[in-house]
Amino acid sequence: MPNHPARTFLLAFLVLLITPIHAFARDESGDGDWLGALETPGGTLRLLVTVSTAEDGSQSAVLESLDQAPGQKIPVSTIVADDTMLEFEIAAIGARYRGRWNADHDRYEGEFFQGMALPLNFARPQPQTATLIEGLDGRWEAALDREGTILRLALNIETGTEGTQATLDSIDQAAYGIPVTALSRTGSTVQLQVPAAQVTYSAQLEADGSQLTGSWTRPGFPDVELVFTRVSSEVVDAYRPQTPQAPYPYTIEEVRIENPAAAGVTLAGTLTLPHGDGPHPAVILISGSGPQDRDESVWEHKPFAVLADHLSRNGIAVLRYDDRGFAESTGDFASATSRDFASDAEAALSWLRQQPGIDATSTGVIGHSEGGLIAPMLAQTPNAPDFMVLLAGPGTSGREIILEQTELMARAGGQAEADINAAVATLSRVTAELLDAENGADARARLDDLITDDDLTALGVPTTQRHVLLSQMGRDWYVEFLRHDPLTYLQTVEQPVLAVIGSLDLQVPAGSNLAGLREGLAGNPDATILELEGLNHMFQPAETGALAEYALIETTFDPAALALVSDWINQHFAD
């Protein structure tokens, strides 16, 4: 489900750090990497577009914003890249680019449009010289006080083969690995920038190297004196003890699955098959909202990899796959709705039933979050599953979930009640208007007339980012999600169902959604509906369920919850 608290509605570019790339010769197809520097009112943002051409000549691409939050490549909706032009559109963020090839300068020259037109040129990335900075390596921690709200920050500095690089973690905002640029040291003076937050920091390093004390500057806010204390001399990767490690007591096969109902969609996935002749009961895993890889990776956790490993160790075959248009799967993620993802799941289920060693009469689905919304949509399809497990699946409408999760997550984040009430009231009014929208384009038109500067303030959105908010809320997916009533589909489910929600889930809150699940499945004699005490939306043992806890918890998936799922499937379908 959408996982943004009230103050973080913006759909920012989410990206990976760039690594040195050799220059390429000009290619008429335009394939490969193209790097541009976008000069915005908030500073310079490097954008990397990676273009590829399929055997049939069709082109696809992803975009990375190298100076903003890392972790995600944004699928490009449409792309033309050849020896005369580079033109693309990204529907998910309301952005587009059009540039002409300049042979004299070996680059595309044009404009990037996202609420405003900005000049932008794309050229092949050039090799970068590694910069080494001595005496700063390690993890540095600080507490930033903004008008009484404390934000815990961690600065991670590490020197490797690519030089000295840094990232920032904003722990209470659950933002990790934010790129830090322009890191430098001259004597005891240390400077850096955080483009994603438009922050500059200039500090003095203590003689013993234990602290950095300086000015944290962000446009529109008073300067703050901020002290970073070095807590370790090296950056240690997060401990994830459940992430599967070889050797594996099951067979692993990398697969590709065509969706015959969707042109250009090929799902890339992993099949884990228990040892032995079988036939084995089997499941497909359906991920939550947003572009997800087959492991549903988030903050170095890989919950679907952990779930697949556990199930296959207990005799159950598992197929998990990258969402369409993301990672190794093809297709267009940005324009897809839950109905499209249901079509992909149906294709995956049909393919799985035809594989050797699979019991075609004991093949079901496990859906997490939005995946738990999609699973019941398959109940009456020609390739209906034999059973389903709903992990934090919704029992209330999409609009109800958005309003409730906004309130709960903002409160867990420590926001003032007056701000929470203003945000929820604004969001309630805006989403009510969108219920009547025909599609995303109609929604954007309505929003353009509806949303005022006061509304943006209530939602915590800068006026300069109005177009981003409109693009996010004006997607076909968002409009369809607001209207989705899970009871319509739950009441058609005749298959055995296990539905579970953690008591500390703030994204699909347990109370209201379990009540809806019980109502929708009231006529199903084989429906087990449970609240799992002390677990959050990711089924981790948590203290409050707040988003900020997710990355700090070492457990990826509560072992008792894993056992509950495998035991339920085997009790129903194992020989």
Overall pLDDT metric? 88
The CATH class of the largest domain turns out to be: Alpha Beta
Largest sheet composition: 9 strands, antiparallel
How far is the N terminus from the C terminus? 35 Å
How many E-type strands?
25
CATH superfamily of the largest domain, by name, is: Alpha/Beta hydrolase fold, catalytic domain
Strand order of the largest sheet: 4-3-2-1-9-8-7-6-5
Shape: globular
Summarize it:
The protein is an alpha+beta fold.
Which descriptors would you attach to this protein?
Lipocalin, 575 residues, Rossmann fold, 8-stranded antiparallel beta barrel, 9-stranded antiparallel β-sheet, 4 domains
Describe the secondary-structure layout:
Layout lengths: L31 E9 L2 E11 L5 E7 L8 E2 L2 E4 L3 E6 L4 E8 L4 E7 L3 E7 L14 E9 L2 E12 L2 E8 L4 E12 L2 E6 L4 E7 L5 E7 L6 E9 L17 E9 L7 E9 L5 E7 L16 H11 L3 E5 L16 H16 L4 E11 L1 H8 L10 E4 L6 H15 L4 H18 L5 H11 L2 H6 L7 H8 L2 H8 L2 H5 L6 E6 L7 H11 L6 E6 L26 H15 L2
Parallel strand pairs: 20-21, 20-22, 22-23, 23-24, 24-25
Antiparallel strand pairs: 1-2, 1-9, 2-3, 3-4, 5-6, 6-7, 7-8, 8-9, 10-11, 10-17, 11-12, 12-13, 13-14, 14-15, 15-16, 16-17, 18-19, 19-21
Helix pairs in contact: 2-3, 4-5, 4-9
